[in-house]
Amino acid sequence: MPADLLETLNPEQRAAVTAPGSALVLAGAGSGKTRVLTTRIAWLIQTAQVSPMGLMAVTFTNKAAKEMLTRLSALLPINTRGMWVGTFHGLCNRLLRIHHRDAGLPQRFTILDGGDQLAAVKRALRALDVDTDKYDPRKVQSFINQHKEAGVRADRVEAWDPYSRHLAEYYAAYDAQCQREGAVDFAELLLRAFELLSRNALLREHYQARFRHILVDEFQDTSRLQYEWLKLFKGPQGALFAVGDDDQSIYAFRGAHVANMRLFLHDLAIAEPIKLTRNYRSVSTILDAANAVISHNADRLGKDLWTDAGAGEPIRHFEAGDDAEEARFIASEIEARRSDGEPYRQQAVLYRANAQSRAIEHALFSAGIPYRVYGGLRFFERAEIKHALAYLRLAAWPDDDNALLRVVNFPARGIGARSLEQLADDAAAAGTSLWAAACRAGRKFVPFVQLIEALRQEVTGLGLVAAVEHVVVRSGLLEHYGNDRDGAERIDNLTELANAAGAYAAESDDQSLEGFLAHAALEAGEHEAAQGQDAVQLMSVHAAKGLEFFSVYLTGLEEGLFPHDNSLNQQGGLEEERRLMYVAITRARRQLYLTHARARLLHGQTRYALPSRFLDEIPAGLVRSLSRRIAPAPSVAVAPAAAPVRRTASQPFQVGARVLHPRYGEGVVGAYQGQGPDTEIRVRFPKVGDKWFILDYARLTAVG
Ligand code: ATP
Ligand code: MG
User: Is this model's pTM higher than 0.70 or not?
Assistant: First the structure.
């Protein structure tokens, strides 16, 4: 019964779900755009306007696509398998598999990710004897991708000077090589699918007749080519339905094109977009904060949002002395909320830069809180970190075969698969490690053997942090990523590794490389929350788009980090950062935490940053500050109004007293630090060791 589906919607949403023909929904965060889109699919199917196989829906991530199918099967008793619901890349892949012959591809074409693609570019350049000092393979790669994303093939490149003529030549050679090998990179997936439909009228008409409805979520982040691709599917009878929010456009750096929203209205002759104005996600405090921040941007399409969810709790603001303290504060809040019945999975920690996750992961790990990292790898599983750890392992113990295999040719030293096979045979025949075989082997391996020998000698006698820093540089990794167009983040992570070593040394009183490597292996392998286990969600703000959580911890609100330095130098950069801030704030349903640190270890050095300007853009009346004062203990009383007091007495337990914690069991009070609402208490537990809690939030009761 269609009435049921529509019953829970407000009138604007209902109008959007049942809009005849093509429509554009332009509405703010949490106003139900995704819900409208999903309900529209269900409604169209239920009212027999379309069959499940007669529509196509495009979402931004695989996670969102899965979510959409789950929601659909909850709304309707249909089989969602085989439905065309997915990401642009996923759907293009599907199209090309079906029509591989028409697309000029082998049935089993392989897909190259960014790393594979770079390797392929290098091979193509080598085959042409190109001087890679002059033509950096990464530059060639990005040249190729930019042109593919703009829909421009090698023979159409506008090359006015010899340099770009050469680049166009290499682009052509790379494409020819991919073609021979049956390989397709990400940009090629979209371009190939686009070309297939634009040139093949029969196929195009087939799909236009089939897909009567095409629906797109997060439309503000589509590129020009993606938009053109969508339009190819729309026949005379077809309807295109898009939902989006210009204030949440956060992929301009990847070619997203907000102007698509205006184009859409023009191309489809739509007079007005449908607006949804009621926000169902967040309490008004959070919504007011988001609206206040985004109002500082000019050039908006303009939208209003209201809610009747009530004001809710004030936003909590915490200024930490450093990033480690920020992370500990978050861990203790998460634990406290969970004790109050809020599951871990409803709590998300968001950060601007992936390198920030290291300190947070560490605090959660130490507190025994399960977590999962989305849209990015956990710190110790990132490729560059594994590479650095492999060098460190070889410095500690060169007979580590796995470590050797990982880096023997990284950065590249011209050791190919055949040489490695030979090495493995030699090692097996002699019954030794690969390292021992490499020491005996021919000159191909000499530079590598010398490098490892040198590393071993040079790190002897160095402290742990110095050893890690030394190996990161001496191995050539830093330089390697320094030449990489996308290497900035990897360099951040590599320098962050030295911070991780420093934290380990300070906490464990152990300066040994072996100890740190064991610690790294443990944090990497063991503590990712199991599938289905209740776990805190960690992700970058970019990866959080479209999602919602009960509580959101928004971290690193410092000038230079958020807004990020890189964006500030670019035109429109600050506006894009502000939209990112808007996305971040609007992920929270009930409670938002804003945190920053006065000092942060980044790029291998302590940076002292000012609080983010975005903090100043939030009206003070919405925020309650939990900032701690670490200046020499002031004897001034803390203003009671500023204190989120759940418990008052300044030191309710004596040092040495036994206390009970619901999670960690019995422990002994070790110390207090801080003042007023920021007082922290340290308790030593027999099983998990020392824990710091914010006293006001600590679930401790006296024993005996
Ligand atoms: P974003 O811009 O962040 O992607 P959105 O506009 O897509 O947000 P949704 O995720 O669809 O918003 O909806 C936000 C929340 O509000 C969801 O939990 C959704 O179930 C709920 N919601 C939407 N409309 C209604 C409604 N009419 N009644 C009750 N809850 C609703
Ligand atoms: Mg959405």
Answer: yes
